[in-house]
Amino acid sequence: MLDTLPSGSQLGTVVAVHGAPGSHKDYKYVTPLLQKKGIRFVGVNMPGFGVTTGDHRLRCDNTERNNFVNELVAKIGNVENLVVMGHSRGCENAVAVAAKNAETLAGVVLVNPTGLRRHRAQRPFWVIELVLWIYSLGPTAKRIMHPLMKYFYNNIIGLRLDTGERAMMCIRTMASLEYWNGLHSHIDTINKRKTESVAVFANYHG
């Protein structure tokens, strides 16, 4: 986790959730701008993506991920005028965390959100399910899949990853997207409070 002002800021606190792959460095251009304004920036590093250690028991679903961020927000303390920011896969979690912390919420920022329905990159979904099934078969399957998935991410998708384990974390996490079914209740909570919300899109977000 990156916390630029552990003592807090009366101006506000931005809690940012990265994509898959990603880390707090997803926000490397935003962080110094907030620091200059005296706004606290808390960059979450989800388990298993390189900065925070993973665990073989991780489910990589939204319940687990949301709980991780909510516990982090509760633990760091001194959170005023909370703005929750998400990038790509982290947007679903940002929306859920924002709704959970509605009492202190000042805004929501979504950068290239994954949307409300499964998009072309995840179709046909049975291919992803097949990859996950093979991966679940045991250590030998994992040893085979790791270099294949590292190659796939680095040479076909064009996202730089250092290990096959990291690539599989991305696939497992992306496979657990809930889209509208998981988001609508959180969106309703945020809208009822008339919270300021911004969605930003770009052609390239590497």
TrEMBL record:
Pfam families: DUF1057. SUPFAM superfamilies: alpha/beta-Hydrolases. It comes from the Eukaryota. InterPro entries: AB_hydrolase_fold, DUF1057. This is AB hydrolase-1 domain-containing protein. It comes from Teladorsagia circumcincta. The lineage of its organism: Eukaryota, Metazoa, Ecdysozoa, Nematoda, Chromadorea.
